[in-house]
Amino acid sequence: MAVCPICGCKTDELDFVERKITDADCRVCSFCNRQLNVFDAAQEPTEAQLRWLDAVIGKDVPERDEAVLNAVKAIRNRFPEKEVQQATFSAPQKTTVVQQGANVKKAKADYDADAVINELQNRVSALENELRNMKRKQMIKTIIELGAPFVLLILLIIVVLSSGVIDNFKAIFDMAGIAL
Q1: Which candidate, 7, 49, 112, 122, has a CA 20 to 30 Å from the CA of 67?
Q2: Does pTM top 0.85 for this prediction?
Q3: Closest of 59, 84, 67 to residue 7, by C-alpha
Q4: Each residue of 58-68: pLDDT tens digit?
């Protein structure tokens, strides 16, 4: 396992590709190679691809050389007219989640505690009954698995003894002079 100098992800050695980024030669993972191919093509990159490039530039990768970082920045500088609206995952979103969590807790507190306890007891009783039935079925299955071969063996012995095959074998062995 090695670390890609572009994205900083751990990647298997077989997935690395030799790549020339502007002036810098480096080995990059196949995903970064595909992403960078878009910027080499004649078509304009999409907003998502530019966001990926901005994220790569902003990511702290210890294995990245300064030449590789400058080469990636040079690619981004080729598209300055396309400003990307950054998706922010900052504190306001977290407080919204916390506020929603508080609302859920408040709504849960409004339930009647006895009703919740009764519901849980009913669910536990149903699970106990289901477990009891499963144990019973498992016991019956085990008895059948162990008893069926024994019963079949006894039936086979009865059939062989009643068919007279033993008497025929005894007569053949008596003619050959072998005693049973």
Answers
A1: 49
A2: no
A3: 59
A4: 888 888 888 88
> Are 50 and 80 spatial neighbours (Cβ–Cβ below 8 Å)?
no
38 is written with which tokens?
């878009």
User: What tokens does 20 get?
Assistant: 């020339």
Q: Cα separation of 41 and 133, whole Å?
A: 66
Rg (CA), the chain: 38
Distance from C-alpha of 66 to C-alpha of 180, rounded to nearest angstrom: 95
Question: How many whole angstroms separate alpha carbon 43 and alpha carbon 128?
Answer: 64
Question: Residue 68: is it exposed, middle or buried by C-beta count within 10 angstroms (0-12/13-18/19+)?
Answer: buried
Reference 165, options 154, 176, 177, 173; nearest CA is 173
With a cut of 90, say whether residue 145 has pLDDT above it. Answer: yes
